[in-house]
Design goal:
Blueprint (H helix, E strand, L loop, with lengths): L22 E12 L5 E12 L11 E9 L4 E10 L13 E3 L7 E3 L12 E3 L3 E3 L6 E9 L1 E10 L4 E12 L9 H8 L3 E6 L13 E9 L10
Amino acid sequence: MSVIQGTGHSTRIIFADSSIKNSIEGSKSYSYSVDGNGVGTQLKTEDIKATTTPSNARAVGQTKITVRYVDTEGKEIETQDYKYGYPAGLATTPKSPNYDVKPKNINNYTLVTEPTTVPGVAGTQLTTNKSIEFKGDDQNVYYVYKLKEGTAKVKYIDDTTNEVLEVKDDLKGKYNTKSTYTIDDTVKKYTDKNYEFVSSTYPTDGVTFGKEEQVFEVHLKHKTEKAPESKK
């Protein structure tokens, strides 16, 4: 009796579109032992389940969709994304699924949601999620962002009456930039009205805007005059 050894069979699966994630499941692999009489005995059964990783290379017939993230001056503030896919109408390859793109959350920036002209940036501006169909030519789209603004306010307080004299509440500017506002003119306005300056939490060289609103206080009090000493 002879036994057939070292024989095997393998199957190679090729997906039509390597630019997308492909998967296979629900199939099985069987292993047998065959003796000299040609009688086979099943040794094991295995499930076949696998997922491919999309290729970053452009295949023949594919077009490219590029997504950029820029500021209002056209500077790239985040790594661009892209994807290759097959347009409709090819004889040998089915159309690729649409490329679903969406804006990113970028630290210290906010998305611009109105049409904006950006110098040196070609393509179509997007302001929200978009499902883009692959076409016969490459496509460029972009999202525009602007630096977030920080805010600050300054309260002028009368320590004699505990009343708020006024509030400077329109201070705003881009993150990490400094305001040119100072309290000097407002303090002088009140010292000219018989007030005395007490203290201030506002930076002498101006506030640097941050992510959260900043509130400062300037304290003043009524000026009092000493009564003249009486002569005995």
